[in-house]
Each structure stands twice: as structure tokens, then as C-alpha cells.
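Hey team,

Filing this mostly as a record. A colleague (T.K.) asked me to run one chain through the structure pipeline before their review meeting, and I want the input and output archived in the tracker in case anyone asks later how it was produced. No errors, nothing strange. Just documentation.

Input sequence:
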Amino acid sequence: MSLSIIKTVSVCKSVSSNEAQLSILNDISFEIFARERVAIIGTSGAGKSTLMGLLAGLDSPSSGEIELLGQPLSQLDDEQRAKIRSESIGFVFQNFLLIPSLTALENVTLPAILRGEGEDIVKAQQLLHSVGLSGRETHLPAQLSGGEQQRVALARAFMTQPKILFADEPTGNLDEKTAQNIIELLFEMNREYGTTLVLITHDSNLAERCDRILTIHAGELQEL
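Output structure:
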């Protein structure tokens, strides 16, 4: 049987708004297994990104339990959760979130440096080559197109060979052709590195490329 990578049990998330409690997620329970590709879909405001933040230990649920790589997040402090993210999780966001003052190469090496592993230039160059950016290593983000910036973000996400990759609307700011190229790269690298992929998207074509689709509607979860 496959290893459970993420497990949620009766997870709820609510926030206070004008002295009232606003429920964002209600009684969410599911499991994601090693090497699976799972899409989480739903309309804007449905709670997809909120759920991703909870799964990655960036936020805590109001009730319920989340296990990440076999560890109950409620039993870990902020530092311990940050350590899991640093060692085992990669992120790709809609807005790329590259450091403007760093070159493409420096942006890719950053996760390894933050882990205290030093600047692995060779590996970063290999990753940039694998996403089709050989020769662009010294370019700053402002000198790259949106698609190229997302390729840098993808290379950066795989720098530490994460067990889990969270991709939050990774093609949301790209034109259709560029988005298709990024999707192909994402799945290709997912296969190559054996990473578990959790994809937050409203793009049904992208979701259908995954092994499973989880739908969030009005804070409730349904599996298609």
C-alpha cells in the first residue's frame, strides 16, 4: 500500500468577521498518497488556497487534525513546521514570487542556501537547463517573460528535491500557449523526481491531467 503523505481528519477553518464567525472550510477529510497527483478545484473564494495553507502547515485549522509526512501538525511548533517545509516541500505560485534583486541562478539556489547546504551552482544550472533556460542564468526576473519567470520558479521548487510540491494556480498569469508549456514541464519534473503533486487550480483541463480531483464547493469537499 502507498505511503500516506497528507491526511486530514474533520478539518474546519473559520475566521472572525464583524463579530460573526465565517466558516471557510467544513469537515474536510481525505488522504493523499506518495507520488500521487491530486488537483483541488473550486471557484474563486471557495477555500482552495486556504486549504493549501493548512496542508503545508502555514496556517492552523480551527478544529480537526492534519498529518503531514506522518506528523500531526497540531503537535509541532512554528519552528518544527518550518523545518518540514524547508526539508520536504516545494511551492510554485501564480505570481512567481521570485526575489527581484537576484539572478535566475541565485533564485534557484536560494532554497538550498536557506537549508544551510550552501550554493549548489551545478545543480541549479542543471535545473535551469531542464526547464529550457540555459544561457539565462544571470538575468534578473525583470529581464524575463512571465513564462520564463515561472520556469525559474519551477526549477527553484525542485532544487531541494521535495517530497511534496504545492502548485497554487501555477498557470494563472500566463497566456494559453505558455501555460501549456509550463504544465508539461510540471508533470515531466513530477515524474522525474517522484514528487507528490498537489495542484490548486480552477482550470478543469489541468485538473484532468491529475490522478484524482477534489472539489471544494461552499467549504465542503467532494471527490470526483
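Quick notes for T.K.: The CA atoms of residues 44 and 202 lie 8 Å apart. Strands lie at 4-17, 20-33, 37-41, 63-68, 71-72, 89-93, 164-168, 196-201, 212-217, 220-223.
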